[in-house]
Amino acid sequence: MEPILEIETNLLPPERIPTAPFEFPKAWVRSTISKEDYFFEFPDKCLIELENLNKELQRNFLPALITRPEMYRLENCKAFMRMIKEVLDDGVGFAIMEKLPIDSLSLEVATTMHWLLGSLMGRPVAQNYKDGKMLYEVMDLTEGKGKNIIGVRGSHTNADLSFHTDCSSNISPPDYVGLMCVRPALEGGESQLTNWYAVYNKLLESRPDLCARGFKPILFDRQLEHAPDDPRVLSRPPFAFDGKITMRYSERLNRQGYKIAEQPIDQETEDMLAAIDSILKDPEMRVDLNFQSGQIQWINNASIGHRRTSYVDHPGDPSLRRCLVRMWLREEGKISYLG
After folding, report:
1. Which of 152, 306, 314, 315 is the most buried (most CB within 10 A)?
2. Helices then strands (H, E): number in the chain?
């Protein structure tokens, strides 16, 4: 049988498992959240700083990865990003920033702006085991062939992606995920967000007996994002609680993990996965967002799950394809992929 990497030793004792529902703004559903909770325009003073940054980069360009916020005058942007972080940590858990003037910027400059703004909020980390990529282009590299291609991440296809936590199968998932929209799709590609506090509330309401299962280990397929001689499967509870609920979720990777480990899924685990899947199918449990060029979406990766609908790209010219630039932030551990 496949060896399993077990990284959770101190499990939450039964008496500490939450039994009372969480409240807004931590827990929200479609009918309780409003655009004012998550939609923020760049203040004029920030736009002036970004325009000055654009001029400086045009005169004296540097690759994004070697730039740091302290190299430029970004005091107002720093205050703005501090407010965004408060929304992620203590508000509804995600924010849409409206928007970089991307039509008047080169892709290199826009990417550097995204990098610097994200760096004002936290520490960027690698998004790939093999090459340590820090800025990751989310776009279809399969020319519409779908997601069932070995070795190709779903983010590099145009296929429908189910609700998940980014990097859920890693030892240390990122704390925050940022996506800057360079170009939207011709059709589709809608971003949908759900709230794990609200999902937990629903599970507590409908199947309270399954809540405790979420605090016990479950298997994850690590998707070969590790050294060749490391275990292919991770064992860790999908739920955690230290005053705040956090969740690492990917039903697909859970089921693949059990298959790789050649272990059957016990009935309690099967019931929990099915119950969560049923909850996530309710439109009331999500918000639907259509990315526009220049918008930046930031989510708290521990409290917000996200998915993307399938999409159709612009035909012909590859430069017109849907493209997002992703950042991951994580404050603890190493900056490498495994953390």
Report:
1. 306
2. 7, 17
Helices (H), the chain: 44-59, 75-90, 107-121, 196-206, 208-211, 251-261, 267-280
Residues 6+ apart with CB under 8 A from 148: none
What average pLDDT does this structure show over 55-71?
96
Distance CA 81, CA 331 (A): 16
Q: pLDDT tens digits, residue range 94-151?
A: 999 999 999 899 999 999 999 999 999 999 999 999 899 999 999 988 876 655 554 5
Question: With the C-alpha atoms ordered 172, 37, 42, 45, is the resulting torsion angle positive or negative?
Answer: negative
DSSP string of 262-273, one letter each residue: T-PPPHHHHHHH
Query: Cα 330 from chain centroid?
Result: 12
Q: Could you tell me the two tokens for 215?
A: 């605090």
Q: Are 293 and 140 in contact (CB under 8 A)?
A: no
* Fold designation for 4-329: Double-stranded beta-helix (3.60.130)
Question: Can you give the residue ranges of every domain in the chain?
Answer: 4-329
Residue partners of 52: CB distance under 8 A and separation at least 6: 72, 73
pLDDT tens digits for 23-53? 999 999 999 999 999 999 999 999 999 999 9
Using only C-alpha atoms, the chain has a radius of gyration, in whole angstroms, of 20
CA distance 212 to 250: 18
For the record, the structure tokens of 169 come out as 């199968």
pTM of the shown model = 0.95
Residue 129 and residue 338 in contact, taking contact as beta carbons nearer than 8 Å: yes
* Chain centroid, CA 69 distance in Å: 23
Instruction: Please state whether beta strands 239-241 and 245-247 pair in parallel, antiparallel, or not at all (unpaired).
Output: antiparallel
- For residue range 143-180, list pLDDT tens digits in order: 766 555 545 677 889 999 999 999 999 999 999 999 99
